[in-house]
Amino acid sequence: MAHDLLGMFLKWEHETPDLTFLQQPVSGEWKTWSFREAGVEIRKAAAGILSLRLPEKSNIAILSKNCAHWLMADLAINMSGHVSVPLYANITARSIRDILLHSESRAIFVGKLNDYAAQREGIPDGCTKIAIDFYGVKEETNWSHWQQLSPLAQPVERKPEELLTIMYTSGTTGTPKGVMFNNLAFHHTTQIVMEYARKFGPLPPHPVLLSYLPLCHIAERNLTENLGCYMGASISFVESLDTFGRDLASVQPHLFFGVPRIWAKFQEKILEKLPQQKLDRLLRIPILNNVIRKIIRKKLGLSRATIKGTGAAPIPVSQLQWFQSLGVGIREIYGMTENCALSHANQDDIRFGTVGKPMPSVEVKFSDENEILTRHPALMMGYYKEPALTATVITPDGFLKTGDQGAADKDGFVTITGRVKDVFKTDKGKYISPAPIEMRMLKNADIEHVCVVGMGIPQPIALVVLSALGRSKSKDEIIKSLTSSVAEVNPLVEEYERLKRAVIMKSDWTIANGLMTATMKVKRNEVEKIHMPTYPKWYAENNLVVWE
Q1: What is the DSSP letter of 495?
Q2: Which CATH class name applies to 255-303+306-419?
């Protein structure tokens, strides 16, 4: 069988039909599918897709939270010879319409959602809605109806180099771009990921994985669907955000990847139960040290995780060191959608504050602006219907311009120093890269998000969203806390980079209000659109810490 995503699923369907492939929690109970059972549903769904008589290689969207049927729908689209277009489950009706029209999607699977009624109007006329009614949604065409069909015996043949999926990403800048991948890219990346995963401890032949980050994001696609199908894994899903902790502790996956905000939440939860002074005291007792560490790892759900990774946004070194003290060595990993999330990682050695060294097969160079450029066989095919835009990010010799600035130390470990487009100029005419200043401010556990800005004012200011811990404190305590952070940061930067004000935001920045990406990066452009007119007013305040 072919060494591609679908081919590897078919291999396990044939060789280990009774092995559990998918586990979906429903009201606290696990619904399971073996490889054989999932194969039957996938084949029947593929037959249903073919019954629509769409043109060959049509684009078919998936609008759903992570769930067993997300994977089955994607494999059914693949099996029927079409192209999948996954969408973030929480996007607005307008964004749905924009992407479906741009991608010319002929059909859309609608699955596990919070408010499909509000999103439904975004689906254009002529785009067939296929409701995955297992999750309570209903349309004229339903998944359960297709399960009455005869299963597709033979998948539609497709070439490794043909378009397999279009992954829309807006990053921190706004307009979604359709990143195109074929099976060759996924195969190459998955081989590297499997090699990486086996470095840090013996993985069982069929590992247990937990899917909770959006499957329409390249990192989760790699670490759940692709890795899962290639290794014949058992893939479990979380029921909801509220049950995330319960589900993670129940599954105890062999690999775990969390964006920095997840690790911060873990830290908060641990310190709620064990305040730092008590934790320090327990960890100093030799007999209890290992016992406490094991209990914490088990309660988090990380007792079997040979790799604990983080990426997608910066993480403070202090947080990495804190987890290391608990025996949880977190490896920073770096990549982006356009390079199939294959770029750098902390591999044999961990060097805190860096994203590690280039992964196997990855060629790296730096531009005159210190922009990181990468090249390897798994780069995107380009942006869908956007050849001119593609040409702006792929150099004539085939390197991808990442947009990230970085520097390599003498051992080859790379530190991300900022974004090329994030650099701004104050009205003193000085250029400032905000990322290093933001990273220093984020050491403060009272801060959830920070965005350093300064266009049109003499010195930069920090826009701050307080964390849950910060919100629990009084104004006086926050003034003291942020004053201390600014006093710590300012002597470490150039005079023109020193923070003049810390401005506390009234409301949170979230994915829902469009100020955060799905991987919890601040959308600087969107934040600036709202707040830039107020920069001079805040700058003119007398106090270091001011409230919006």
Answers
A1: G
A2: alpha beta
